Amino acid sequence: MMLLPDYRVRQRDYLLEISRAITARLDLDEVLRRILRASTTMLAGQAGIIALRSDEGLRVRAVYGISQAMLDYFSPLLADISIREDGVLNIPKLDEKIQKLAHAVELRQVVALPMAVGEEFVGVIYIFRAYGSDFSQNDRRVLQSFADQAAIAVHNARLYANVQRERKRFEAILEHAADGVMILTSDLRVESFNHALSQITGWQANQAIGRAHDDIIVWSCCEPGTDLHAALAEGWPHPDGQPHNDTLYVEGDLVRPDGTKISIGITYAPLLDSDGNLINVIVNVRDITHFRKAQEMTSTFVSVVSHELKTPVALIKGYASTLRREDATWSPETLQHSLQVIEEEADRLTTLIDNLLQVSRLQTGAFAIDLTGDVALDQLAKRVAKNFRTQTDKHEILIDFPPDFPKVPGDETKLRHVLDNLVNNAIKYSPEGGKVQIGGTVNEDKVHVSVSDEGVGLPQDELERIFERFYRVDDALTRKTQGTGLGLYLANAIVQAHNGDIWAEGTPGEGAKFTFSLPKEQ
Ligand code: ADP
């Protein structure tokens, strides 16, 4: 075995220690300190500096044998450094700078080498001697081996910091994504689980992680057609498939741990290694309840509107064509009655179209309310009552407001629309007739207006739903009665826009009472 000279043994031992420190992922500062100590000792120096390149130029990152107070003397050595094409450092006026240094801190010889990874210049290492001979070519060679190690350590630390940053960024994206996301291992166990997915599925991340996909994704009976297992059985993911078009989409109703259901759409995206083996499945879960509701709503809209339009149009056409017949003459009463029907049906169409327009304005955000008016609701109620009295013989429309009922800020046309709707309903849903009372009360900061009737009444569990768009109670009378389920929806929107509230009370068979409250001041 060849015996190495003593310094070569020490150099090898130091390099070994340093590469161990690098692989053990020690803190970069500690690794650089060790490299500097080893280099200074190996080169029989008294002090050393490692400076790293940053956006603001070279910055001292490790020192050996130099006190903090002395560091300022060394800053000229870090200014204006560049690296030549042949990889040699160019330190302008080095001799002059060293002379000054010798004066201040008694360091007389210097050797400086660049630290580089490939083409990239990452920093510089300086070793100083206070006495003894100049640094030799051999010293430079020895120092280069340490500089290379230092450059590797810096490079690794930067890679590691980048990986950490990317990881944090990825975790933040995952956690804050609006869609539910989970990552599955190749055997379909949950590895990550984000906040949105907790909200959709009802599973907490800490309960879900480690569980099988099938524990979390439980489809309600008979759904869906092609699920993850069916796709896997058919050879998904396809090893040669393009990642973007090899996703799998499954839609259905998910059963949550508490038994409730939610409509979801899931996109499964496979993550394959270079050999085409499945590493992970990225699962993106979207709550499609709104989408499904919107689809339902569209079809309800089309059927309600076409039905509601058809009836008056058919009546108008029927009466008009009868009146036009040239082979018949009509008594003045028949003529009067027929024209009245035509007029009423035309009014109904106008109301329907008006309601539809208002709903569409609500949806597009163009629903304007002018709260600057002074509305005397008691006077308004009187006008509404007068108008409806002409339309019914069966009902007695009564008004009950205290004498000094205050005016409220609001939009008179829109509030009239609310009252019209409530009184119209009270008449519509009390086919046997009876009293319809419009009353008002006042308290400290609000006024209340209510419309009550003695009609069919309302079941307890319908009291809130009747304010939903297109919602109509499913009973025999409602089915016989024309309507779109938009009146109360609009009334609610108008009252809300006045910062008020509207609610219903009632018992089946005992009539219904609708009340809205409005603030006295906006
Ligand atoms: P529409 O009357 O056109 O159906 P609304 O939105 O005005 O729509 O009312 C929604 C549903 O609420 C009605 O279909 C009816 O079932 C119920 N409803 C409204 N007002 C009354 C009332 N005064 N008495 C009983 N049920 C009512």
Protein described:
This protein has helices at residues 6-23, 28-42, 94-105, 137-176, 195-201, 205-208, 213-216, 228-233, 289-324, 332-364, 377-389, 412-428, 476-480, 487-497; strands at residues 47-54, 57-64, 82-83, 89-90, 109-117, 120-129, 180-185, 190-193, 248-255, 261-272, 278-287, 373-375, 395-400, 408-410, 434-442, 446-452, 501-506, 512-519. With 522 residues, it is of the alpha+beta class. Strands 8-7-11-10-9 form a 5-stranded antiparallel β-sheet. It has a 5-stranded mixed β-sheet with strand order 13-15-16-18-17. Helix 1 packs antiparallel against helix 2 and helix 9 (289-324) packs antiparallel against helix 10 (332-364). Bound molecules: adenosine-5'-diphosphate.
Number of helical runs? 14
Tally of extended strands? 18
Mean pLDDT: 90
Q: What would you call the quaternary organization?
A: single chain
- Basic shape: elongated
Strand order of the largest sheet: 8-7-11-10-9
Portion of residues in helices? 40-55%
* Rg over CA atoms: 42 Å
Q: Identify the bound ligands.
A: adenosine-5'-diphosphate
The largest pleated sheet is described as: 5 strands, antiparallel
In percent, how much strand structure appears in the residues?
A: 15-25%
Euclidean distance between termini CA atoms: 98 Å
Low-confidence stretches: none
Overall SS class:
alpha+beta
Summary tags:
23% strand, 522 residues, single chain, 18 strands, binds adenosine-5'-diphosphate, 14 helices, alpha+beta
SSE topology:
Layout: H1 6-23, H2 28-42, E1 47-54, E2 57-64, E3 82-83, E4 89-90, H3 94-105, E5 109-117, E6 120-129, H4 137-176, E7 180-185, E8 190-193, H5 195-201, H6 205-208, H7 213-216, H8 228-233, E9 248-255, E10 261-272, E11 278-287, H9 289-324, H10 332-364, E12 373-375, H11 377-389, E13 395-400, E14 408-410, H12 412-428, E15 434-442, E16 446-452, H13 476-480, H14 487-497, E17 501-506, E18 512-519
Parallel strand pairs: 13-15
Antiparallel strand pairs: 1-2, 1-6, 3-4, 5-6, 7-8, 7-11, 9-10, 10-11, 12-14, 15-16, 16-18, 17-18
The chain binds adenosine-5'-diphosphate.
Residues 421, 425-426, 429, 453, 455-456, 458, 466, 472-473, 478, 483-489, 512 line the site of adenosine-5'-diphosphate.
